[in-house]
Amino acid sequence: MPVSDASIPATEPKNQFRIALPEPSTSYDQDAEWCLVDVDGKWREFRFHDYADIYRMPGLYEQLFHRVLRCTSPRTIATLLAGGLREDGTPAADLRVLDLGAGNGLVAEELTRIGVGYLVGADLLPEAAEAARRDRPGTYRDYLVADMANLTAEQTTRLRDHRFTALTCVAALGFGDIPTDCFRVAYDLVADGGWIAITIKDDFLSDRDTSGFSGLIKRAVQDGALKIVESHTYEHRLSTDGTPLRYVAVVGRKLSDL
Description:
alpha/beta; 8 helices; seven-stranded mixed β-sheet; globular; about 30% helix; four-stranded antiparallel β-sheet
């Protein structure tokens, strides 16, 4: 497999890896992208959607996606949500946020920056919860490792007890990581009038969509379950061949359950 050296200088004192990306002349579907990482002197292949393996390596997620591939999604959704809250006159500190597909807490870090103080994470992967506790201790008041479409009674009660007034889900929808049935459950945990802030690849909101999210969002708006406050198309990150990946950030208000 051809690779080009995309390692970056050791500008920070810890968690620096040598990373090699595929040759830019070769393109891959987003869910098939990969790289090589120098781990203890040996090159090891990581597929981008093998998040469990990436989370086990402290600092690799941030270096790969945010410093090498220039991911902007956590900052983008936090900024967009902050603008909606200001216009509405709602203090960010009043939100009780369920961060779906929370990963190692990058989105929560950005939400904390805009003033959110009550954050609960949820992710399918125990490695994500472990990474969040390791990398951003104290950011989440609670972190649930579970399949949102198959919650136990205890897990459902645990989530409902947080009395959520907002849901965030960033760059995790549409590829099978969080299918529509999981998103519905999380959405319905938010109180009516609460805030919904998501980012999703633009293809999944188009007529070409096969994930179900395009139809779900359109029906939610048409049926009056969701009022979109603001929608913004932006560059999520670069693909391994340098092509920008376009996503849509959506901030809205939940008016009723899905």
